[in-house]
Structure prediction request, 173 residues.
Amino acid sequence: MAQERTGVATAQGNPLTLVGPELKVGDKAPDFKVNKNLIEQVSLADYAGKVKLISVVPSLDHTGVCDAQTRRFEEEAAKLGDNVVVITISVDLPFAQSRWSAAEGIDNVIILSDYKDRNFGQSYGVLIKEIQLLMRSVFVIDANNIIQYVEYVGEMTEHPNYENAVAAVKKIV
Prediction:
């Protein structure tokens, strides 16, 4: 049975249970498998040699905060250079993600889905047991797959600290 953490996250003040480990700066980033589309999967290895900013959202087109978070990292991605990949992961179905990305003009952020087996959510400790969505969070992983920045946002409806996440990327590029 996967590790469960309670009391570390809320949704509108209601306690949530997160499934998986609490990752920390200095940890080796766990591998994961998520979907680019309904069939094709990618893993951490697909971004080898790059600095990775992974933005995790509960659902792209159902909350204003998820939308704003992805748009903000879209703006930042254009400025971070070719050695950085910015990824947003949610459990939305890939065709919903694709439709949302096209409608919103998202070109610099790679949008991936953890809908199939919640592999990313469980590996990174962001799977919300009660609702099977991912908890808002940000991970910055260096080119050697060592975690350099982690933010588990405590309240699902709040924004992450964009400035700190971008500063962590700039520090290692």
Notes: Helices lie at 64-80, 94-104, 119-123, 162-172. The beta strands are 4-11, 14-19, 33-35, 41-43, 51-56, 84-90, 109-113, 127-128, 137-141, 147-152. The first helix runs from residue 64 to 80. The chain has four helices and ten strands.
